[in-house]
Amino acid sequence: MEIISNNLEKDKKDMRKVWEKIGDYFRANSIWMMWYCTGCGAIEMPPTMTSRFDMEQLGMGPMATPRQADVLLITGYLSAKTLRRVIYSYEQMQDPKYVIGFGSCTINGGIYYDSYATMKQLDHYLPVDLYIAGCMPRPEAVMNGFDTLISMIKKGEAKGWKHYQENYDWYHENQLHSLGEVYVKDEFHE
Amino acid sequence: MNFIYAFLLLLFAFFFQTSITGINRKVMARLQRRRGPRWFQQYIDIFKAMSKGSTSHGWIFDFGVIMALGGIMATAILIPIGPLKAFPDVDNIFIITYLLAVGMLGMAMSASGSGNPWASIGVSRALTNMLAYDVPFMVLIVSFIFAFKTSSLSGFAALQQGAGVMGWNFFRFPLGGILALICLQGMLGKKPFDSFIAPAEIASGPMVEYGGRHLGMLFLLHEFSTFIEVSIIVHIFFGGGASPLEFMIKYALLYTFMNIIAGVFPRFKIDQAVKFYYKVPLALAFIQGLIIIFTGLGVS
């Protein structure tokens, strides 16, 4: 009983060091995003960025390349073709990094649930930190989701990137299962 | 002792310019009818970038960033703040101009070292932009050196003090003043002269492969180079400042004005920018130079 209690206590305790907490404060209040326009969610991003909703008041803004970005937004369904590119982009981002899935399609395929070419569960291939409900989520829901992500980062709960590193074999196996091996190694085939 | 002053000057330059940048992000947001971030958002961005991991593309990539930042910081310590100087008698416009080039070339070396074609395109645009605005600007500066027999920033500033606002070179040489502001826009890399960091066209150009700590150092570089460039114009055209506070106020107003100009312009293509600089500003520079040489108008 005492052992179990100690384990539970340890699991709940915040394991972050002081410097990590300080870093997480900065990372929570300055999130640069890269969104991959895979589906209809992309159309919600311009109003979220511009004067009506203004995500910059949260310290968020768009960045041009995965090297610079902190969060990858999957704004709809992924096909087999786009999933490969999304994985490449994710792996080019610097740690720590986060993924947000928009809408039903990233959870269960949404209206494409029976399509042969659509990915049904995004979190089998990438570690999703947060889903935003809706088909498609409105800018209010997107802003609410960003606020939730900020809170998760401050508390040290957004650890998908660690999970990806620690369970890379499982993710990679799923990726290979859906995408297959690339045999021609050049800039046009990978 | 000079190096302590130099270090304090660098600290001042960082905190002052980063705060001004943060406030100006708020100003830009208001121009676009947005609320914008908090005034200290720029600090958070820099420290966030510093707190993340980074990917290297070889020693040229890494060393170039350090060379760029080191070169710009070395230039920044030569800038007077009002009457305060870390190294007296070294705030020469030619020394500052050449040291600025060290930072730019370090940046070019590093970005090219990443192997990304967007970086090479961005760097070539940045250096082309630099060539474009430097020619008319230096024609103007040489005219001023001819007129005032000094090439010292604090010397230029001292000659304008004591005569009020109308004593500023900006009003004594209106053509030169307009030209200086146009060139400052190019120096700062703001619209319409920001084709080398176009996010949608060349994925932010030189910055395409930088992330984490590398990007943090680039943000620092940007703050210091902005401080240098705005300070040069404040000293040469707006009287510098009889006190540090006066200098800071002039600086903040000038920088905010340039940002407001940027907020209402679209982007030039790089060839449009070069053609523009070699037509209008270069013509203004020559006209102002001829006026100074042959009539002495404004010199007293």
Automatic annotation (TrEMBL), chain A:
Keywords associated with the record: Quinone
Residue ranges occupied by any NADH:ubiquinone oxidoreductase-like 20kDa subunit domain in the UniProt entry: 37-146
Protein name: NADH-quinone oxidoreductase subunit B
SUPFAM superfamilies, A to Z: HydA/Nqo6-like
Superkingdom of the source species: Bacteria
Pfam family, one: Oxidored_q6
GO cellular component, one term: respiratory chain complex I
GO molecular function annotation: iron-sulfur cluster binding; NADH dehydrogenase (ubiquinone) activity; quinone binding
Cited PANTHER family: NADH DEHYDROGENASE (PTHR11995), NADH DEHYDROGENASE [UBIQUINONE] IRON-SULFUR PROTEIN 7, MITOCHONDRIAL (PTHR11995:SF14)
Native source organism of the sequence: Helicovermis profundi
GO BP: any one term: aerobic respiration
